[in-house]
Design goal:
This protein is of the alpha/beta class. It has helices spanning 17-33, 51-59, 78-92, 103-116, 225-228, 230-238, 246-250, 281-284, 303-307, 316-332; strands spanning 7-11, 40-47, 64-69, 96-100, 120-124, 126-129, 135-141, 146-150, 158-162, 179-182, 214-218, 241-244, 271-275, 292-297, 310-313. The chain is 30% helix and 23% strand. The longest helix has 17 residues, at 17-33. Bound molecules: flavin-adenine dinucleotide.
Amino acid sequence: MSNLKPSIWVYGDYRNYFQNRVTLQLLAHAKDLAPKIEADVCAVVFGYQVDEYVGEYIAHGAVKVYVVDDKSLTSYCTETHVNLMERLVCAHHPEIILVGATDFGRELSPRLAKRLRTGLTADCIGLNINDDGLLIQTAPAFGGNLLAETVTPVTKPQMATVRPGTFQELPHDYEAQGDILHIAMPPDLPRPKVRMINCKRLPQRRQRLEEAKIVVCGGRGMGSKVKFKKLFELAQLLDAEVGATRPVVYSKWIGHDALVGQAGKHINPQILFSFGTSGAIQHTAAIHDAELIIAVNKNPDATMMKMADVAIVADANQVCSALIRELKARIRE
Ligand SMILES: Cc1cc2nc3c(=O)[nH]c(=O)nc-3n(C[C@H](O)[C@H](O)[C@H](O)COP(=O)(O)OP(=O)(O)OC[C@H]3O[C@@H](n4cnc5c(N)ncnc54)[C@H](O)[C@@H]3O)c2cc1C
């Protein structure tokens, strides 16, 4: 091994503000864990002209940053990032690798774990170190009904992806110092089989779903894509964001970024309107922090109705339309 001191690596996922926040949250928690195994906290950054992130990661807890800065890394490519990570890991043998459970992180981590023939716990909501110095990886299991604690006792590195928002990032430390290790792009890295032809940003939401004070969430009970669209009008009037259940996302009534639940976003609004959702555990696991839930469902026995603070037994479309009319009338007054 080239590194005598153990290290905890955090993969630098920085391509948008949201991803970068997760990386900073992981650095903060890695800093808490590091003394328990006398480890260094390191970040790994691949990209082009990434100095800004290198500095930010040092200011948020990394004492060392491994950087591959190359024009060929301008756009993200899973294969290339996996190849680079594999080489770095084999050269430096980190004890632990933490990755944000973003779309990129979820794509990269299982591939890397397979290459390294090690374990990976996905979507962790807690990480600690046990008496044997092993990483305890806590993640929901069986549809969120149980929390499973997993350790990887035999193989290294121990790997986990962690849900955004699980940990708090540290304040920016302007005095922080760290080592920066620039690594040249290996010339013999396999060429990726996938090539990016074009990249287009999705229209921006007014605010992030996870941070919205009011969320209007629609389920299959909205009936159709056309009817579901009413929720956007309602959301605009309420200065709210629109979320959805899995059948709605799978039917393409709205994009995947609106998915609320175990496989999507966790939300904590002050008010959650829930239209035509049954309240499956995979969905409700992500709405427990909502302060007030107003549910509309034809079926009074639906789980969502039982969970709601205000349960309206009615047709979801009719209630949505009535609310829109009422709000518009108030604006006109
Ligand atoms: C591994 C796994 C992960 C999953 N992850 C997620 C996840 O992250 N998020 C998620 O949402 N789901 C997830 N699911 C799916 C989940 O189990 C449910 O199938 C899903 O949440 C149900 O969506 P729904 O409530 O829109 O639809 P349904 O369960 O079909 O419920 C529709 C509701 O609408 C009501 N309704 C019908 N017509 C009307 C009307 N006109 N007016 C009012 N009410 C009406 C019905 O009474 C019913 O209660 C996951 C499932 C699995 C197996």
